[in-house]
Structures are given as structure tokens and as C-alpha cells.
Prior knowledge:
heterodimer, A: Transcription Regulator spoIIAA, five-stranded mixed sheet, 3 helices, 7 strands, globular, B: 548 residues, alpha+beta, Phosphatase 2c, domain 1, Heat Shock Protein 90, five-stranded parallel sheet, STAS_dom (chain A), Anti-anti-sigma factor (chain A), anti-sigma factor antagonist activity (chain A), STAS_dom_sf (chain A), Bact_Sigma-Reg (chain B)
Amino acid sequence: MSLDREFSTDGKELTIFVEQKFDFSKVQDFRFAYTDSVDGIDSIVINLQKTEYMDSSALGMLLNMHRTLGEQVSSFKIEKCRPQVLKILLIACFDKKFQIS
Amino acid sequence: MRILVVDDDTLNRFLLLHLLEQQGYLDCYEAENGFEALSLASRIKPDLILLDTVMPVMDGYALAPKLKQMAGDIYLPLIFICAVDDDASLARCLEVGGDDFVTKPFDKTLLAAKIRAHARTRLLSKRATEQNRQLSFYRNAVEREHKIVEHIFVNALTVDPELRNIIDFVLKPAGDFNGDMFLTHASPTGGLYFLIGDFTGHGLASAIGALPVAKAFQTMSNKGLSLMEMAETINATLLQLLPDEMFFAAILVEINHSGKQIDVWNGGMPNLLLQNKDGQIIKRFCSKHMALGILETKEFEADVERFEAEYGDRLIGFSDGVVEVENAQGKMLNDSGIEQWLQQDPLCDVAVLLSNLETYAGGIERKDDVTLVIYTCQTLTQVDRFAHASQLPVKVVLELDHQLLKSCDPIIELVNMLTSQLSLYGVHSQVYTVLNELYINAVDHGILELNSELKKTEEGFLEYFNLRQQKLATLDSGKVCISIQYQALQRLLSIEVSDSGKGFDPTILAKTLDLEKSYGRGLPLVKELCRSMTHSHNGSTVSVEFKM
Lengths: 101, 548
């Protein structure tokens, strides 16, 4: 099942809504979400408000996205993390590559 | 129609009874004097009394007030039959309680007409009395039911005493029952939740809706669920329970363990205000959703707004009963009104706001419930994250053979079982991460002997994924064992995961988290989350201690 996405009205910002579990089983869906018809975007937001369970492969997938879109996209945000998920992102120093809120 | 004739003159009584009989009144009684009439009346309960003025023992003037007293609230017509026709005597008949009079010799037609007229009034009075009786019966029944529901209500809507010092609030119902509600609960991650809500309408109907909301809120708070999930669940519950015309406007707020990160879901409530220490309103969380209990689950949007505040900032919430309160000129207070009060007195508590409100209304009775809540951003060290955690030391052991490794995804289920059975909701995400990393390592590297280096590139990730699926599908041997020991007192989970694979050399593990590499992050992450990590049995067994 593909992940929910939302483009801003000017088409420049893409928000991807991740589900409750963000792990290796999402590798194809997640890749599709950030590569399918994204020519016009310059900003990506990963919305983790539903996400309770995340592992290191999800971190790897986020870094892959960063690397793949790094030249096109100037702003990478991760927003609305649950407190425990935030802790994991911070342990992995993801605040150095993503704006986390 | 029962009529009593009171006259000391036998002939007069005969004439009157004859007349009544002619008019069709057959249920008639007679008495010779006031005294006899009184005792007879108390027994036969007449509907109308014809009485003479002058009689021995007790005359008509003395009898009339006694009869009226006996009749109580129901109109008992007294018609005097007077021998005299001076104005003073006739007036006296009415003053002592008589309702009408005829003078002797009486006109038959006139007397009959008067009897009919008074009988009609008597009937009306009887009906009204019966209706009043029914009405007060129903009123008593409703009051009694209200008392019962109020009792349940008070018990259901208790506020965690620990949070009373943290959140300042007041609820003032307009009637017996609040359409408004306020709930607050500690979260297992060390923060807190609160809810300000307003059911359409007042009274029992809204009270009934409040009960499942309170219950759901409490359960979900205990589990540390997201506002999103809370809003979705409450919406679905109310959608199922409430009639179409009823719904529930609500603000859901989660404050995280830092005490100053604010999540808000506002559906149909007035703005939730954030005020800084200088008294300025720096943020208005306005309603972005429809109220709860309206939209079908598939249409429902639970998007949450997040804001990072400063310590000392104040979050101020209120129901529409506050902004819609009217002054003597009929002018509503509005958002601007309350914001002005807050700016004029940046430290005011809810008691001050409430008294401002009373002053503004100028003694006019409130039409709607009023709820005011103030949370001041502060460190939440006093919130006990493990207030509900189990005291029992428990050990869980799983042995997963190759069939199970293929067919199930055991970690989510295991984490759900542990966190719900032991009430460790606050740490479920981290326990998941730890267990999942160890389990995936055991399966991927121990059993399937996959090489992480494949994951260097984006394509490699997919290749790895496909290879994993393939190898798993054809797996015909291998075993992973998981053992988890919960030490309640130390709040410690000792986790051991071992696999039947060849093992590996743990010294090759990355020591730090390299942000440029998209793999090799698992065990370093576990190490950060746990107090200790050791490998044994040639690397095929790993033990960690997770401290809550």
C-alpha cells in the first residue's frame, strides 16, 4: 500500500505521511513516495505523526532519500514526531541533515 | 357531578333537590346545618355545594371558609341561597369564601345556569390540578435521574490530582449539566494531555456523550497515544453513539515531557491562545477541523499542529460560553475581549478571568457553560511516567523456528504484549527499536547470511530487500530465540537474542554513527538506547539491558 502524499499549492513542497510502522518492509513504498513525479519540488517534509515504531533501516531509507534528492531539494524536514521517535532521530544525529520538529 | 345541599328548612331542601333532579343531577346529598355538612362533605367529597346563610349549630358564613379549606387547591364552588337581599349580606357571602349567590325565591333557570357554569370551572381546576400533579411527578423523577447521572459524571470526570498543581482550570455549567467538559491525564512518556470540549446542547444528552469520551481519553492517555489517534477514536465512538444533530467540539492538547512542546488538535472550538511572559499573544491555535462525531472515519482529518514554546509561556483555552457572553447592552465579549484582559493582566489566573466575566455580564444569567483552562509551560518532573507500571518480575521466552521466521513478524506483537501487560506504554517505541534491531540482525546476518554492504546504494537497498525475501522463502532450517526478563524494581528489561547461525566477529562493528553510510546503524543505535550490550557464543548471542 502506497504512502499518503500531499503537494503544497505551488507544487514546491512534498509532504510524505509515514504510517505507524516505518521499517524495512516500507522500502519500496517509501522510495516510490519520494521519486514519483517530484520534478517540481524543492522541499520535502516527512510527517511522522502516526509513526510509533521505527528502526535503523528506516534511518537508512531517510538517508538514501537525502542523497538521491540532495541536489534538487534544498530543505529536508521531519515533523511531528512522537517523543520516543524523536529520541531515536536525535541519537542518530539526524538533526544535522534534517530540520526536525 | 356530586352536589351537597345545606339548609335547615326541609321544604327548601326538597325544592332544591327537586330542581337538581330536573336538571339531571342525580348524585345529590343533603345536610341540615353547617356541622353536619362539614362531616358529610369530608366523606362524600362533593363537587358543588348549595348552602343557606342562616342555620342553627353552624351557619353558612362559618361553614364556607371551612369547606374551602377542606377543598384545598381544587376549586369547590359554594353557591349561597340567601333569604335576605341587602347588599351587605350578599357581599359577606362572597367575603367568607362563597363563589356566588342566588336570592330566595330563586329563579330556577338562573340557578341551573350558575350550577353549570361553576361545574365547568370545577372541571378545569380538577384537570389543572391533575396536570400539576403529573408535572411534579415527572420533575421529581428527572431530578432524581439527574442526581444519579451527576454522581456518575463526577466520578468519571475526575482530574488526576497530580496535575491539579500544573493546570489551572474552572468549569461553570449554565444548568444542572455541563455540555462542556475538561479532562487531563499524565502521559507515560512524562508529559501530559488535556481536552477541552463542548457538546451541542446541555443536560442529560450531553452528559451521556461525555462518559465514553472520558473513558476513551483516559485509556488512550495511559497508552501514550498520539492526538491523531485520540481524535480518530473519539470521532468514531461518537459517530456511532450520538444522534445526527449532536456533536462534540473539542481541543486536544499534548504537552511532551519537556513541558513546552505543544501539540494541538482543534475541531470547532474557539482559538487556543499562547501568551508569552510579556503578555503578548504569540500564537493562536485556531480550529482547523470539524467537530467530533460528524465526519465518517474515511473523511476525518486528524492533522495536528505543533509549536515549540518557552518556559513561562501560558497556554489559555476556553469554551465558546466565554467569548459569547453578553453584557447588558447585548454585546458579546469576543476573542478580542478576552485577549485584552490577558494582555492587561499577564499573570491572571482562571479565577480572575472568571470574575472579569461575571463583571462583564453584569449579573445577567449565563446562557452557556463556561470553561477556562491555563497551562503554564514548566518542567514536568513531577509527572510519574511509571505510575501504572507492573510490579511483577516477568520473563518471556520465545523460540522461533524457520517456519515462524518465514510467516510472522513477531516483534510488534511481542512489544504490544509486553507494554500492555506490564503497562510500559511510555517506552514501547524504544523497546520496539531495540528488539527489532536485534531480531533483524539475527535473521538477516545470522540465519540468512546477508551482507549489509549491499545497502550502500539506493538500488542496493531494493536488491537487499528482494534477496532477503527470496532467501526467507526458501529457508528450511534455523532458529532464533528471544528472552526478555522484566525487573520491576530496577525498571530494567534484560533482553537476549540468539540465533543458530555461524556468528560473527563483533569487533568489526562500527563504533560511531556515520551519517554518510546508509547501513550499519542498527547496533550502535541499540547501544545508545541500552545500558549495556554484550556479544557471546562467537557473536551469535547478544544481550542488552534496557533501562527505562
